[in-house]
Amino acid sequence: MTNSWVNWAGDQRCTPSTLATPHSVDEVADLLAAAEADGHPVRVAGAGHSFTDTVLTNGTLLNMEKLNRVLDIDRETGSVRVEAGITLNAVSNSMHEHGLAFPNLGDIDVQTVAGATATGTHGTGSTLQNLSAAMHSVELMLADGSRVELNEQSDPDGWRAARVSVGALGVVTAVTLRMVPSFVLEGIERPIPVDDILADLDSFVDGNEHFEFYMFAHSPLAMTKRNNRVALLEQPRGKAVDWFADILLSNYAFDALCRLGRRQPRLIPAIQRGASHAGSYRRQVDRSYRVFASPRLIRFTEMEYAIPRAHSVEAIREIKEVTKKFDTPMPIEVRWVAPDDAFLSPAGGRDTCYIAVHQYRGMDFEPYFRACEAVFDRYQGRPHWGKRHFQTAATLRERYPEWDRFAEVRRRFDPKGRFTNTYLDRVLGPIG
Prior knowledge:
Elements: E1 5-6, E2 13-14, E3 18-20, H1 25-38, E4 42-45, E5 60-63, E6 70-74, E7 79-83, H2 88-96, E8 100-101, H3 113-118, E9 135-141, E10 147-150, H4 156-162, E11 171-178, E12 180-181, E13 184-193, H5 194-199, H6 201-206, E14 210-215, E15 221-229, H7 239-263, H8 268-278, E16 282-287, H9 288-292, E17 300-308, H10 312-323, E18 332-337, E19 352-360, H11 366-378, E20 382-383, H12 393-396, H13 403-413, H14 422-427
Parallel strand pairs: 3-5, 4-5
Antiparallel strand pairs: 1-2, 6-7, 7-11, 8-12, 9-10, 9-11, 13-15, 13-16, 14-15, 14-18, 17-19, 17-20, 18-19
Helix pairs in contact: 4-13, 10-11
């Protein structure tokens, strides 16, 4: 029986020499010692929600899902210490009992804390940063089994590198998060013409704590979502209502339409127009993490780019027009985040608009994604580290002002290149 690993989308797989699921940090150290003795490279897998080949290896692959405990909670300061393999959803549920919550989340929360932060995962909100900004410190295990605790005081450059590291520095074993008091969100979804949104975009983005929208290339409508804090008690919806809206309509029914579009591409424009008109007014008042995230059962692959917010309108229009030239039944997603200072954060140093394009499973993504990437390149776009792109270290270096400082931290923590693979060699360059 051979070891094998496959990601959530089913389009990235590898057969490592060693596939291990450690239960403790001591086991992680033992596995790193064995990898050193065998000359194996080491990569770490989270929940497998990256669409890139970032974790693929023929050496040692560590699955951190058993390192999933909450280690310490300080309700007074909002400081929470967790093991790296715990999921965002598990943290949210555990912390709600203590009156704490993430300040922001993306639209799924099944990723591990380490995986989500290492790839620069984000939610939406023009005054809110990506998820890694919620980290106060990172515990990193190096190739020799030693552990270092990185924070703003102990190692400022190491800290800024480790927050979005793409797993290039070592094995993250624990993190300390800065949480906020738990809160209730009112989520309102409604269709609005794309042209109306773009004509007054700042009022939508700045007039809500969290604003995002989905649009289809062949429909004039966008499906908008506005999440704002309210001084109301949570009003959880019944399970039947949740199943009908989130599972039957958003997943099963749309998946059936996507399968139809894959078989009959000429129907895609009609499918998209129908799907956009099916979106109707919807209101949800509930715990923040329940409003932020929703189930994603449809299998697809994705590209997402961060561009300067100032170019939002032009880029959105261009991507919509480019998408009309390709067969994809999937929508385009648009979100906004505040700048941060992690060396490799796609939102580093600039107010950012994220634009994501998708392709349904079994359909050719590369021509479409390359055409979109050409648009993003014109706006100095930076790819989401967990999603498909065709960049190299040579094309990315000029887009990150602190690129060389990250490279220096990488050489310091992993001088032998134990934690590299083909993907990292391509996008970060070889160590040396």
